[in-house]
Amino acid sequence: MEFINSNSSSNIHFVLVPFLAQGHIIPMIDIARLLASRGITVSFITTPANLSRIKPTVDRVSESNLPVNFIPLAFPSTEFGLPDGCENLDSIPSPSSRVNFVSAAKSLKLPLTLYLRDPKTIPPPSCIISDSGHSWTLDVARELGVPRIVFHGFSCFSLLCIENLTRYKTHETVTSDSDTLVLPGLAQRIEMTRPQLPKQFHNLTQFQEMRKEMREADLESDGIVVNSFEELETGYSGLLEKSSGKKVWMIGPVSMCSKGNEGFVHRGNKSCIGESKCSSWLDSRCPNSVVYVCFGSMGAFPPSQFMELGSGLLASNHYFIWAIKSVPSEELGNWLDENFDESRCLVIRGWAPQLMILSHPAVGGFMTHCGWNSSLEGICAGLPLATWPLFAEQFLNEKLLVEVLRIGVSVGVKKPSDYAGKLKDEVAVGREDVARVVEKLMDAGEEGEERRQRARGFKEPAKKAMVESGSSYLNLTMLIDFVFNRFEDGVRKVNG
Ligand code: UDP
Hints:
By secondary structure, the chain is an alpha/beta fold. The chain contains 19 helices and 15 strands.
């Protein structure tokens, strides 16, 4: 096993086990860097293929002498019926392979335990921060006698809604998919339909066992780490603590630690557009004139929806950058080549330097799938958002952005799309609606200006939360203290 960059003298050792998907790996790397910048030794558990994807980040961490060990554990893809080298959720062949993927991840339990028990692993582990998707890390933590802290990668608001729905079972009171229910336990009245809720609230048998295990492990865990900040989600961490009975530490926006370095460009994957090409295109635009359109690390559309989205963007009166993860057909690839030129837009086929784009003054709005990382990155850039949720907890994030924070304009999607648009060729949002929402997002009128002002209002608080004595900085200190006290208790017990 390779140990990369180990030089800490601290007695505390955090073990970070992210779910193997870019939307989970990226914020966990930031958490690793934040902990390491406080002198804490961190082991970041990953797999060989994922390690090579994040190589630029690993190199940067190594150059800055941060005490982070990146630990690649062999991932048994083929043993679990997955293609060779399939080590990330974005490369599973079909939605149903998710079960195989999660089972393959479970088999990391033994190699992880061996690594953590190895006398060469110094200092010995003091705490595991585990993605909620890895329920098996609870056994590892219990065996080692260290706390397991859960990271979901969700907003506090969404976590609270999920916790309350699980408790009160409000979703069971609606009889049809078009009936609305009121989200329980919130001061504000917020309505949703059952299909818009995360999958565990649908009437599905698929994945039930996996979800049950995740829930049971979360209930046994010692606290919840959230990538958010108090000034954004005021009051929700307190409500979540009450509802879940767990300690909650809001330690974000963690992406702030990527600012001002190369991580801005190659974050999670190597960007497929040169930094200078992207910034010179943006430099040639007026402030607030460009819409950035991106649907996360996996969001993709079936052919008809892809065509409607592209046509709607062209029909709007605005410049745009469209980051596309997958073009549904060769024909649509040709359509892109023929109709989308740089006098009007920049099409990025593959990984975009999202943080860099969002921070450019030419960008005035962000059309997002409401993945929490992207939502928060847009908020940190002080941008209003056009919300187009696709799946998972993204419809809850949309409610936070549009109805609670009032910095979002909804495109009006009624139900989740199938996984990465691979199954049905359906249109959820037509080209007229795409164009209308872009106009509204970029609108200079009173309503648009008020929305923009509210969005801008979060930019400084986001920065302040992360600097010394800021709310998230202090929360991270409290998390470290919590683990340190547990560690001291353990030492006292051993010494009698
Ligand atoms: N991202 C990026 N370039 C892309 C697509 C995504 O840098 O072309 C990053 C984005 O900045 C965010 C993460 O990937 O940090 C996506 O996480 P999110 O929670 O928004 O969505 P998910 O991919 O999990 O659906």
